[in-house]
């Protein structure tokens, strides 16, 4: 955690140094030293994460966090680390996108291409899809105040995605993962749901949840190209200090990138009439 904070501080100091240099003129050496300190801190943090990452850990089987027709991107079934880096505990993370709306009546997910440069979030079936608890757990962290930005699933928009992602990385993990939720599954295992829709949380920190319970809605916040869910298990509660853990989804396994999978909707709980089960008072029919 300290190395991550030091790295961000050095990058912010470097940006301030560049601005001061433009205004007053400063020795170039100072800027290079700040760059070296920032890169050194990030490298040291990465090496520590690699050292601490559990070896040959048995994948934990949990319930799928979504229902309906989805497909996987950036899957640990193809490579580890799945997103190219171990930072933020995402060595075994997976991204999933909805292919069809829940009722299968609306349009399919738009494909990546050249045009349009951006799209409305409503054009993507994943946007607003329910996200479900993967196990009985306790809500540890819940944030949903960041706005949902437009999609960036086009070649021209990739440049902006990379640039904005670099800025978010300097600010901190919370800006990279956007609106997010962390569940404490017990036994030193934590589940992270990232890129949630703004103001969609149905739970709060400290609350107990059941497997299959709706927690929030899928969104497009943080460093995200389109509405999707980024899911991972980790060994610590905050992604800045966490190592990723392998997992399997019951009935699904670990889908590879591009692999489509379908998850039945969880069975609805019976609705109990307001008066049913209460002792009937004297004189009631």
From TrEMBL:
Residues 165-235 form the M23ase beta-sheet core domain. Residues 263-285 are annotated as: Disordered. This is Peptidoglycan DD-metalloendopeptidase family protein. PANTHER family: MUREIN HYDROLASE ACTIVATOR ENVC, PEPTIDASE-RELATED. GO terms for molecular function: metalloendopeptidase activity. InterPro entries: Cell_wall_metabolism_enzyme (IPR050570), Dup_hybrid_motif (IPR011055), M23ase_b-sheet_dom (IPR016047). It comes from the Bacteria. It holds the Pfam family Peptidase_M23. SUPFAM superfamilies: Duplicated hybrid motif. Gene3D superfamilies: Glucose Permease (Domain IIA).
């Amino acid at each position: 955690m300290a190395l991550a904070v030091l790295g961000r501080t050095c990058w912010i100091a470097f940006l301030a140094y560049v601005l001061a240099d433009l205004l007053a003129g400063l020795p170039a050496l100072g800027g290079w030293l700040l760059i070296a300190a920032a890169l050194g801190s990030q490298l040291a943090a990465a090496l520590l994460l690699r050292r601490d990452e559990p070896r040959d850990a048995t994948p934990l089987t949990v319930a799928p966090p979504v229902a309906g027709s989805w497909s996987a991107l950036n899957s640990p079934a193809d490579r580890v680390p799945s997103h190219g880096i171990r930072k933020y505990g995402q060595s075994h993370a997976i991204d999933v996108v909805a292919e069809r709306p829940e009722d299968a009546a609306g349009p399919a997910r738009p494909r990546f291409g050249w045009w349009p440069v951006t799209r409305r979030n409503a054009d993507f079936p994943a946007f607003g899809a329910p996200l479900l608890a993967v196990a009985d757990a306790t809500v540890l962290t819940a944030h949903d105040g960041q706005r949902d930005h437009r999609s960036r699933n086009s070649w021209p928009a990739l440049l902006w995605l990379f640039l904005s992602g670099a800025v978010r990385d300097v600010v901190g993990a919370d800006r990279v993962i956007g609106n997010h939720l962390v569940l404490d599954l017990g036994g030193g295992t934590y589940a992270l749901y990232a890129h949630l829709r703004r103001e969609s949380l149905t739970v709060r920190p400290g609350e107990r949840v059941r497997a299959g319970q709706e927690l929030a809605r899928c969104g497009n916040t943080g460093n995200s190209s389109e509405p999707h869910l980024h899911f991972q298990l980790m060994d610590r509660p905050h992604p800045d200090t966490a190592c990723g853990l392998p997992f399997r989804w019951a009935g699904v396994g670990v889908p590879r990138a591009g692999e489509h999978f379908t998850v039945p909707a969880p069975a609805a709980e019976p609705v109990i009439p307001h008066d049913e089960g209460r002792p009937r008072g004297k004189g009631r029919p």
